[in-house]
């Protein structure tokens, strides 16, 4: 296992942190409450001993209890000590309300996901692990939502601060929030104002700009799911509503052949790169691809083409590091995966995490197969019920 996930290398810092993860998990495992204990009083006592809040203590205890219910993952983690508390908490939250019948399959698939297949892969973040569990459950039972969407609020919540500023929030579906954010951002760019001023202008009657929401769906897979940045894979109802609004269809296979003479990536190339990469390609960076620059692996001035095989999504910070020649990467045109080489002599592997990435393509096929099988069973069951017995 050594030198596979970058956190399990032989560096002294990596070993020290693995020891810390092991000790921390051991501490919380030793505090598992027995049924006869008064939970409230025991948590109060723990809070006094550790200085941690009740919420933190409950989250940690629930996370450890969840790991105990996933024997395959638990054994894997006991051997490698990869999962710290933030990742264990993410796993617990993602599995809240999941049908117990699905847990063994989720346990197996999650362990496979957290088993590296290449040297120097980056350990998935807590958020990525949570998304992956959501995808597993959606594949095993599309009718189940592991994280039910919040009910739409009928009012805006405003919090005023002593300095005269204020925050407001409104619960809504992810794709609706993304659409509003896109409209505000584009209006701010058009009018040269801040986002707050742009939003206020729209409230006062400014004409909203037209924005584009890109949906991704495999054209060669029946029953394929639909993806929307930055929301992720959509449930069937949401996907159906958004697909009805589609005004243009792009064939992204054609974009892979596009040789653009200009320096800047074309709109179609940007859509493709966002779909392939998903996030900034710097190992471990989670900034959404929508908010990244499209970097030429081989500089355009040095003859590097504006072609998707020579382009990758990098956030501004990591693009500057690459420009400063403190990092370079080699991009596999087939899978979209990249090996990042750093000026200190280390390196790390970066996988393409978008809906067009190599891993997502395999998942889409498996998801579609599960959905097709499930629909066939439902039709067969319905037919059997309607067939009279003689």
Automatic annotation (TrEMBL):
Residues 375-390 have a biased composition (Basic and acidic residues). This is HNH nuclease domain-containing protein. Signal peptide: none annotated. Residues 268-320 form the HNH nuclease domain. Gene3D superfamilies: 1.10.30.50. Residues 371-390 are annotated as: Disordered.
């Amino acid at each position: 296992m050594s030198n596979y996930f970058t956190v399990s290398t032989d560096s002294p810092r990596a070993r020290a942190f693995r020891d810390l993860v092991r000790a921390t998990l051991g501490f919380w495992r030793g505090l598992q409450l027995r049924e006869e204990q008064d939970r409230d009083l025991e948590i109060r006592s723990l809070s006094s001993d550790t200085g941690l809040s009740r919420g933190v203590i409950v989250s940690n205890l629930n996370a450890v209890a969840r790991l105990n219910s996933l024997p395959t993952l638990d054994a894997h983690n006991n051997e490698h000590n990869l999962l710290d508390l933030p990742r264990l908490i993410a796993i617990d939250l993602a599995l809240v309300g999941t049908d117990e019948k699905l847990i063994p399959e989720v346990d197996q698939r999650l362990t496979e996901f957290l088993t590296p297949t290449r040297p120097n892969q980056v350990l998935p973040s807590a958020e990525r692990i949570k998304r992956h569990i959501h995808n597993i459950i959606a594949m095993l039972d599309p009718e189940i939502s592991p994280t039910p969407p919040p009910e739409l609020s009928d009012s805006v919540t405003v919090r005023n601060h002593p300095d005269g500023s204020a925050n407001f929030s409104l619960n809504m579906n992810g794709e609706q929030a993304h659409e509003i954010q896109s409209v505000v951002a584009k209006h701010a760019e058009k009018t040269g104002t801040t986002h707050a001023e742009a939003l206020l202008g729209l409230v006062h009657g400014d004409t909203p700009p037209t924005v584009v929401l890109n949906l991704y769906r495999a054209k060669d897979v029946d029953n394929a799911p639909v993806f929307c940045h930055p929301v992720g894979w959509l449930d069937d109802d949401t996907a159906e509503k958004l697909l009805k609004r589609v005004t243009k269809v792009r064939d992204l296979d054609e974009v892979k052949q596009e040789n653009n003479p200009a320096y800047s990536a074309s709109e179609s190339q940007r859509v493709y790169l966002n779909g392939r990469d998903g996030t900034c390609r710097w190992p471990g960076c989670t900034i959404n691809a929508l908010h990244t620059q499209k970097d030429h692996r081989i500089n355009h001035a040095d003859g590097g083409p504006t072609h998707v095989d020579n382009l990758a999504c990098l956030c501004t910070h990591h693009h500057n590091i690459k420009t400063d020649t403190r990092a370079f990467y080699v991009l596999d045109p087939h899978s979209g995966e990249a090996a990042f080489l750093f000026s200190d002599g280390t390196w790390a592997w970066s996988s393409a995490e978008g809906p067009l990435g190599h891993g997502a393509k395999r998942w889409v096929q498996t998801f579609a197969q599960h959905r097709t099988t499930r629909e066939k069973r439902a039709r067969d069951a319905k037919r059997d019920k309607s067939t009279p017995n003689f």
